[in-house]
Design brief:
single chain; mainly alpha
Length: 64
């Protein structure tokens, strides 16, 4: 899993192409419900299950 993989998930969940590896999910309009969709997509595609707290610590593709 690379930051570019997470960028694609952010783009799909947020329905925007305005995502870079340093984009803050919440500044792009994401909320906690959409964050759980991102975490589920990561788990489905790549295996590791991240905690919501991990997402809050650094809500960027680079951080995840």
């Amino acid at each position: 899993m690379s930051p570019s993989d997470i960028v694609e998930i952010f783009q799909r969940v947020l329905n925007t192409r305005e995502v870079t590896t340093s984009s803050d999910f919440f500044e792009l309009g994401g909320d906690s419900l959409l964050a759980t969709r991102v975490l589920s997509a990561i788990a489905r595609q790549f295996g590791p299950e991240l905690m919501f707290e991990d997402f809050l610590d650094d809500p960027t593709p680079d951080g995840l």
